[in-house]
């Protein structure tokens, strides 16, 4: 029996996430310094872990309201209000999800019909393409590599004119993989275009606390009716494994996302919710010392890469560098990253995995120890000198 006959067309047409595939491919190399995954090397702050321990000891081990504990939703709403000046009703406009990954999938299951189009500025996090395709949606990629990795109002308007079935736009900032972000004036210009069209804005702001040089501004403040905003604690509080995300949206949209969420996971891990309550209420500045160290690491890596002709824009947020492979290397981004892993024992992700504008580039995560990053830069420099 050919078991492949039982696989759905939508599943068979979706490529596996290249980040995970490539990480698995090189992870067995002895002595490798892995800079492939967006995984903070910090520990979850102690006061948050203590809140989780207390919840366990108090036997908080049962299902919660599928929307999330009311205390959780209130804490999350207060957090984004005080941080970013956006207002949401905890009872009707906030939903706890198992990370932003679940938020993405349940959102698109809720809003897309077969054939609906979703604009994805690229280079982009590969998961976006998959979650659009699963319900039968069609990604519309917009290459931003010639515009400092930012979507411009003109390019957005041109894309909307060329595509008549656009249901939504995904905006991720600070961006994975490029580290680019938008200031208030840039977001205002994009909002002016968006408000002229009947589309939804999916604003993935999971890296909002990791911005360098200026405060994060949420576009949800400008487009409260049209925006579905995501946030969480994975990156800001080193809580990737706790799997806590939050969706903020108007009730007419959130109620439909909630339906999908119940089928996907019912409710978020109860202990993790209690930890998140502590983080939102009493850990609002927990990211600050981490951000200072990330900035120092960013500067070390950028300077080291530039020394050997690997050009990279200085990232303004998140903890990634999206660097250009020099013309002296005769091969594509996949070959470059394989050679770098095998010969220099440094793991980075091929840019081809991030969509149009990604080829001839690679993503390096500087969410690793400063010692490892310095050694990785030294190895990359030696590698580049050997190929000239």
UniProtKB/TrEMBL annotation:
Pfam families hit by this protein: Aminotran_1_2
Family of the protein in this entry: Belongs to the class-I pyridoxal-phosphate-dependent aminotransferase family.
Keyword Secreted recorded: no
Gene Ontology terms, MF aspect: transaminase activity
Cofactor or coenzyme needed: pyridoxal 5'-phosphate
InterPro entries attached to this UniProt entry: Aminotransferase_I/II_large, AspAT/PAT-like, NHTrfase_class1_PyrdxlP-BS, PyrdxlP-dep_Trfase, PyrdxlP-dep_Trfase_major, PyrdxlP-dep_Trfase_small
Matches recorded under Gene3D superfamilies: Aspartate Aminotransferase, domain 1 (3.90.1150.10), Type I PLP-dependent aspartate aminotransferase-like (Major domain) (3.40.640.10)
Domain Aminotransferase class I/classII large: 32-380
Top-level taxonomic group: Bacteria
EC assignment: 2.6.1.-
Keywords: Aminotransferase, Pyridoxal phosphate, Transferase
Name of the protein described by the UniProt record: Aminotransferase
